[in-house]
Request: fold
Amino acid sequence: MRTTATTETLVDASRPVRASTPARVNLPPELLAKEAALLASMANVGRVMVAFSGGVDSSYLAWAAHRALGNDCLLVTAVSSSYPESHRTMAEKIVHDFDLPHRFVETHEMESSAYRANAPDRCYHCKSELFETMDRLVTELGFDRIAYGVNLDDLSDYRPGHRAADEHHVMSPLQEANLTKQEIRDLSRAIGLPTADLPASACLSSRLPYGTEVTIERLGQVEEGEEMLRGLGFRQLRLRHHGELARVEIDPMELPRALDIEMTEKIVRAIKSLGFRYVTLDLEGYRMGSLNEVLQIHRDPIR
Reply:
């Protein structure tokens, strides 16, 4: 697993805006109007630095920022032990394929005891580190604003990272344009972004229950385990780290295949090789933010 990386610039910010995008005749006019409003709003905010993870939302935002601003945007991707290598690979692909101005920066959230403690506000400490790093880069390079890729649907989930964004005056253009996750996928597909149908993703620390210390070793187990499960042909999944027990969440549509006796043996063999003593398949399947369920249980205890 990657533990260190160097700051680097992949693509020079002087590269031109792409002159055209694929035809989008199948998109509804209302959605195209939202995109037009997004581009118009971004064109009037000065030089913008985009937090770019290589996920669905930030990739579309990266395209939109470059479309609206050209040389006045810069994509910034954080590199640390808490981000899967697959995210970095996707970020590199998009930067290369779309000729986008980009830079990797190291972030050091693992040095924060508050982050490692993995309380329910863990994401706040992670995003604070990211935005503080980007703030320094904004000053150094003469940019005006930072933007990040949250969408309208994110308002319904527990997201302490939003507080860090507010404190650092970070823009949320997709949310302000009232774009949902599905709309962002549709727009991404129309412009040829490889993230259009990418499964939902999150940092590796989100696989550890609150109160379980975030360590490089545990993050490595999670990342390697999820890569093994993808190697078995599963697409949407999470490996939740519960100490000696690995709880595997797989999309409900894929569960029948996972429950086949030969497949369960392969899953157990792969995951136990990482040091887990027990392996369990969650019969509810994959669902976003399953570890947040405990927060509601604590508020409304079983009687």
